[in-house]
Structure to design on (329 residues):
C-alpha cells in the first residue's frame, strides 16, 4: 500500500461537456467533498474571445470564480494555437478565474477533427508549447493545470507525452487512465499513473472508473495518487464526494437516499428554469435521471414516467411524486 492510500483525498469535479454546467456544479458542490470544479471547455480557434463567452461558460466569474457554496471553478480551454491559448488564458485570469485548465483529453470526433482535445496527444511537443506559453502569460499566482489521456490510439507515446509536460511548471496534471481509442470502456489503467507520478514534479490527479468510495480507495492504492477527478460517478451518486471523505475520515456517510436525490432534481429543474429558456430546462433533468438510474432504481421508474413530458409544470408535478397525465397526442 502506498503512503497516499491513507491520506484524506482531494476530489475535483470533472468538466463533463454538455452536462456539468454552472447549475450542476452548484447542485453537486452543495453536498460537499470537492476541492474545486472545472468548466466545460471553451473552444479557442481563431480569436481572443470576448468577456461574454467566458461568463457564459463560467457564470461563477461574476461571484469571485466560486460556486455559491464557495468551491473554486477553474476555466478550461481547448485549442491548438499556443499564442491564442495563452492570450485567452490571460484574459480568463484577468476576469477572475481561480485557475486555468488545458484540455488535451476530449475524445469527441468533432473536436479531434479540428485538432483539439485528445488529437494533440499525437503531438506532444505542441502540448508542451501550449502549456509553456500559457504558463508564461498567466500570473504566477494563478494555477495552470492540464488534462490528458494515456495516448491517442495506444499508450506507446505516453512516456513522450510525460516528458513534454515535465519541462513545464504546471500546477497539476489530470490523467484519464485510458487512451482516446479506449474512450470510456473499462477498465481504467490506474497502474500507469505510477509512471506519471515518477516523471512529473507536480501532483497527478487520477481520473476514470471512479464510481464509489471503494473505487477511489482502490485507485489510491494502485496509482499512488491522492487526488481524483470524478465525473460520471458523481452524477450517478450525487453524494459521492461527501461519502468518500466520510469513508477516509472514519465518519458516517451522509444521509443521502432517493428522497434527497429527488428533492435535488426538483431544485435542479427550478434553477434551470431561472437560468435557461423554458424549452431547454427540462432535458437536463431527464439527462440526470439517466445517470441516477445507475445508482437509484427509483430513478429508472421516474424516467419512464417523465421521458415524454415537455411542460415544466407537469415535470415539476411528476418529480414531486404526482402521477403525470399526458395528452393522447
Amino acid at each position: 500500500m502506498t503512503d497516499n492510500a491513507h491520506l484524506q483525498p482531494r476530489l475535483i469535479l470533472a468538466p463533463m461537456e454538455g452536462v456539468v454546467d454552472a447549475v450542476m456544479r452548484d447542485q453537486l458542490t452543495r453536498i460537499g467533498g470537492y476541492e474545486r470544479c472545472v468548466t466545460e471547455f471553451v473552444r479557442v480557434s481563431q480569436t481572443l474571445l470576448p468577456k461574454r463567452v467566458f461568463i457564459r461558460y463560467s457564470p461563477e466569474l461574476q461571484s469571485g470564480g466560486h460556486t455559491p457554496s464557495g468551491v473554486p471553478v477553474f476555466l478550461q480551454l481547448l485549442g491548438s494555437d499556443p499564442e491564442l491559448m495563452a492570450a485567452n488564458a490571460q484574459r480568463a485570469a484577468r476576469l477572475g478565474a481561480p485557475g486555468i485548465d488545458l484540455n488535451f483529453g476530449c475524445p469527441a470526433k468533432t473536436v479531434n477533427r479540428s485538432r483539439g482535445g485528445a488529437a494533440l496527444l499525437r503531438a506532444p511537443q505542441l502540448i508542451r508549447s501550449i502549456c509553456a506559453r500559457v504558463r508564461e502569460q498567466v500570473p504566477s499566482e494563478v494555477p495552470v493545470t492540464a488534462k490528458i489521456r494515456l495516448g491517442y490510439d495506444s499508450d506507446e507515446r505516453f512516456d513522450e507525452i510525460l516528458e513534454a509536460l515535465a519541462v513545464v511548471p504546471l500546477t497539476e496534471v489530470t490523467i484519464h487512465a485510458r487512451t482516446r481509442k479506449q474512450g470510456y470502456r473499462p477498465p481504467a489503467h490506474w497502474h500507469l499513473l505510477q509512471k506519471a507520478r515518477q516523471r512529473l514534479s507536480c501532483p497527478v490527479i487520477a481520473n476514470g472508473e471512479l464510481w464509489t468510495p471503494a473505487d477511489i480507495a482502490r485507485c489510491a492504492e494502485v496509482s499512488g495518487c491522492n487526488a481524483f477527478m470524478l465525473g460520471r460517478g458523481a452524477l450517478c451518486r450525487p453524494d459521492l464526494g461527501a461519502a468518500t471523505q466520510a469513508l477516509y475520515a472514519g465518519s458516517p456517510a451522509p444521509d443521502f437516499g432517493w428522497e434527497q436525490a429527488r428533492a435535488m432534481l426538483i431544485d435542479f429543474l427550478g434553477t434551470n428554469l431561472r437560468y435557461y429558456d423554458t424549452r431547454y430546462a427540462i432535458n437536463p433533468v431527464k439527462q440526470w435521471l439517466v445517470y441516477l438510474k445507475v445508482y437509484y432504481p427509483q430513478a429508472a421508474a421516474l424516467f419512464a414516467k417523465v421521458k415524454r413530458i415537455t411542460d415544466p409544470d407537469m415535470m415539476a408535478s411528476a418529480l414531486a411524486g404526482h402521477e403525470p397525465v399526458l395528452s393522447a397526442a
The two ends are 60 Å apart (CA to CA).
